[in-house]
Design a protein that fits this description.
- It is built from 4 helices and no strands.
- By secondary structure, the protein is an all-alpha fold.
- It is globular, with a radius of gyration of 11 Å.
- The longest helix is centred in the middle third of the chain and has 15 residues.
């Protein structure tokens, strides 16, 4: 499911997201997948690989944060 969320605490904090339980984490995971163009059924490690690319690009990182705020 959301194997990579623990590595995104700073991004989630900036987006004012604080997933508390499994349901919340799944919702955040699905939102991230949608934003970066991945499918719900894509394996977690592939999603994390793409997320890391977004996090290394400051513009993409800001887009991700803004879309998470508004989703």
């Amino acid at each position: 499911m959301s194997c990579y969320l623990r590595y995104m605490k700073d991004v989630l904090t900036e987006a004012d997201l604080h997933p508390e339980d499994k349901k919340d984490r799944k919702e955040v995971d699905l939102s991230i997948r949608k934003i970066i163009g991945m499918k719900a059924e894509d394996k977690c490690n592939l999603v994390w690989k793409e997320v890391k690319i977004w996090l290394q690009d400051e513009n993409k990182k800001q887009i991700l944060i803004e879309k998470l705020k508004n989703d």
